[in-house]
Amino acid sequence: MDLWFDTDPGFDDWMAWALIEAEPSFTLHGVSVVAGNAPLSVTLPNALAIKAFHGWTTPVYAGCDRPLSQPQVTAQDILGAQGMETTGPVLPMVSTPPTPGHGVQALIDAVRAHPGRITLLAVGPLTNVATAFELAPELPGLLQQL
User: Is the pTM of this model over 0.90?
Assistant: First the structure.
């Protein structure tokens, strides 16, 4: 199954991503990161640290950094400043940059390159998805599933 993962990584999204990467029948074409549990300035480094920690090669793209029309509300009061509150060791941050390009355009390009094959798994705010559908109105019809 071909997948695209749209996320605002905290622990829950990390586990979902790990399950995707562990399943040999899945082909993960990319990960787009969105502001959600924390600002993009936090969720993107979380995603890059998760990728580096596991040695995954999936491209990770920065996506939308704020909601479309509402003020941004995070869960940092519950999940901590990094969106992944812990009482144990902290995931080491890395200086690796994201894959060049915007996550929304990368998603559009991947779906257009594989029409009818990609399932979009969006587990964070749907800002990247809504923006992609606005920029490419044909996209919902090109997805295998959402």
Answer: yes
